[in-house]
Amino acid sequence: MKKNKKIFLGIFIAIIFIISLFVYYSNTALTNTLTQLSPQGISQMMGYTIKTKNGKLIVIDGGTVDDTNQLIEQINQNGGKVDAWFLTHAHNDHVGAFTQIVNTTNIEIDAIYVSHNELAWYEKYEPQRAEFTKVFLDTLAMDKIKDKVIEPSINQKFTIDDINIEILGIKNPEFTENPGNEQSMVIKFTTNKNSLLILGDTGEKSSEKLLQTQKDKLKSDIVQMAHHGQAGATKELYEAVKPKICLWPTPDWLWNNDAGEGENTGPWKTFETRNWMEQLQVKENYIAKDGKQSIEI
Ligand SMILES: [Zn+2]
Asked: What is the distance in A from the centroid of ligand 1 to the CA of 6?
């Protein structure tokens, strides 16, 4: 009888242990999932999400107003709440969907990381875009989110689950040519598996600045191609990053430099960048024109 009791107790403990393991692993994934969103309208756009092992959701930009529904769906499929939202710069093809979501939904956002200048700066250097910039800055100042807005400092580090995040670039108000793009926040995400560099629409001047100030931190397994894969970061910057995988937030017409008359009839420099990455022997390319795609990081 005593022996039987021990056996029953042993089996009972084993069952509880197996159930606990099952519950634990059904709530946590073994890897972090990075998703590149795809253009829903005609415009180029940029939007990424990272679902962490423990179920937290990070959003990077999100696309235009036309991309709003895709982003809402993506958030809802991943828990319905955003734990951290990184906004690279104040352009509509990056933060249009964010602006729309804050103004029209009650989606909960825990923290918004953004580095921007005063409205007067944009009015002076980028007057043609100032109307949207004002809408974006007014949105950040709304009562419901203003306390969640965080302006990161350069080289600031933080951790979300087991992802280490470092801010390698913030606004550069001294760069007044290609002004909006050169304000792009540059963010490095490092997991225990690999590293991801987000460049936003980084241009020539901020590429030089990154090479001067962050050279030893640039090397990354995965890079988001700056400015939708053309006329963005310099070849020298990509050489320092030395990526294995490229993420292209690039629609069909831009990938093919097609202004409507077929391949290579447009003024864009996508083929130049595509050649650089071939020279750097990148074999894996994820292009937004091919639809929403996910990879484990
Ligand atoms: Zn852009």
From this structure: 66
